[in-house]
Design goal:
The chain is an alpha+beta fold. The chain has 8 helices and 19 strands. The chain has helices at residues 7-12, 32-41, 61-66, 115-125, 150-158, 201-212, 222-231, 266-275; strands at residues 16-20, 23-28, 43-47, 52-57, 81-87, 93-101, 106-110, 132-135, 140-146, 170-175, 178-184, 191-197, 217-219, 280-288, 297-300, 303-314, 319-327, 336-339, 345-349. It has a 6-stranded mixed β-sheet. The protein has a 6-stranded antiparallel barrel with strand order 14-17-16-15-18-19. Strands 5-6-7-4-8 form a 5-stranded antiparallel β-sheet, covered by helices on one side. A hairpin with a 4-residue loop joins strand 16 and strand 17 (319-327). It is globular and about 60 Å long. The two termini are 34 Å apart.
């Protein structure tokens, strides 16, 4: 398992650790509910340096990647970011990625464990284009700030007001002697990702923690972040999306451009869109006090109609909630489904839970 660069700092803070796709993450710091509250009410700091990254350089970098993903890339302005999926010719997912366009390169921000897979996928189609693929996980790490006091904290550590950063926009700041790229995060409340040179991670983390007391900052682990993610209805590749998932099944309309022209797998997406429905869709599920495991079948009248993918205890809903795939005939919120062989039940709910 690849350890976190800041393992020793987290250990000093009382962290517990776990592995996700071969990379170490902080599970929690001993009080998941307090971490969650900080992200909801103040500001929380999460070490997301377990994520992986690729860089694409060369004159044809934008046109090459444009033909490889479901989202617009050629029209992306320098300094902007977007979310996209990579799919096969049959429409099933290879990975998802946040793409950041910089002046001289494209940066792909990936889930842990996907760097080599995406590098191989893109490399198979890179033939005559003037584009080069580079592994970048060892160059940059992501520190994530979440919560309504994020901008206040960034203003304190950068020495001036920090205007709230809209989703998918970027701004470069100087922080603890490092040039840091800040990226606005969509979908889970106020938050900013900080792309930090690996050599500067310790200095930036310590600066944020040092200034964070005035803003009720708490470090935030994986478990609290997962609760926030599921409450927001955001699927995660490797948990809610796998190699057989079609992006429309996972509600990834925000990852798809319908005006961009050809890309690998486009025909499948176009046919599914024209048909107007998918046979199953990712949905919210209310489980009450039941602690179901991912993979648990959902049934209606004894027939399998879906399965559970992510399960968390939701402070917001005061019960266990889940994401899962449900057949289109049973997607109406309020529909009650059996969990496995019963008697426990799941109630279909609209997403996001928030």
């Amino acid at each position: 398992m690849e350890p976190l660069s800041l393992h020793f700092l987290h250990e000093q803070a009382g962290a517990h650790f776990l592995g996700v796709n071969g990379r170490e993450v902080v599970a929690d710091y001993g009080d998941v509910e307090a971490e969650y509250r900080a992200a909801r009410q103040a500001v929380a700091l999460h070490d997301a340096t377990y994520r992986e990254a690729l860089r694409i350089t060369g004159e044809d970098r934008a046109s090459f990647l444009h033909g490889m993903v479901t989202q617009e890339v050629k029209g992306l302005e320098a300094g902007a970011a977007t979310y996209a999926a990579m799919i096969t010719v049959k429409g099933s997912m290879v990975a998802d990625a946040r793409i950041i366009r910089r002046e001289s390169e494209l940066l792909l921000d990936l889930e842990p464990g996907l760097g080599a897979k995406v590098l191989e996928f893109l490399g198979k189609f890179l033939i005559s284009e003037d584009a080069e693929l580079h592994e970048a996980t060892g160059e940059l790490g992501i520190l994530r700030l979440m919560g309504p006091r994020t901008a206040d904290l960034l203003g304190a550590v950068t020495g001036g007001p920090f205007a709230a950063l809209p989703p998918d926009t970027t701004r470069t700041v100087q922080l603890a002697g490092q040039e840091v790229l800040t990226v606005g995060r969509p979908g889970q409340g106020p938050g900013v990702d900080l792309l930090v040179p690996r050599g500067g991670l310790e200095a930036v983390w310590k600066a944020l923690v040092g200034a964070g007391g005035a803003f009720e900052l708490k470090p935030l682990g994986w478990r609290a972040q997962e609760a926030l993610r599921v409450e927001a209805g955001v699927p995660r590749y490797g948990q809610d999306m796998v190699d057989t998932t079609i992006p429309l099944e996972a509600n990834l309309t925000n990852a798809i451009s319908y005006n961009k022209g050809c890309y690998i797998g486009q025909e499948v997406i176009a046919r599914a869109t024209f048909r107007g429905h998918m046979n199953r869709k990712l949905s919210g599920l209310l489980l009450g006090t039941t602690e179901a495991a991912p993979g648990t079948e959902l049934k209606k009248d004894g027939k399998k109609v879906g399965w559970v993918t992510s399960v968390v205890r939701s402070p917001l809903k005061g019960q266990t909630v889940a994401l899962g795939y449900v057949h289109r005939d049973h997607l109406e919120p309020g529909t009650v489904l059996a969990l496995g062989e019963g008697p426990a039940e799941a109630t279909v709910a609209a997403l996001p839970f928030t």
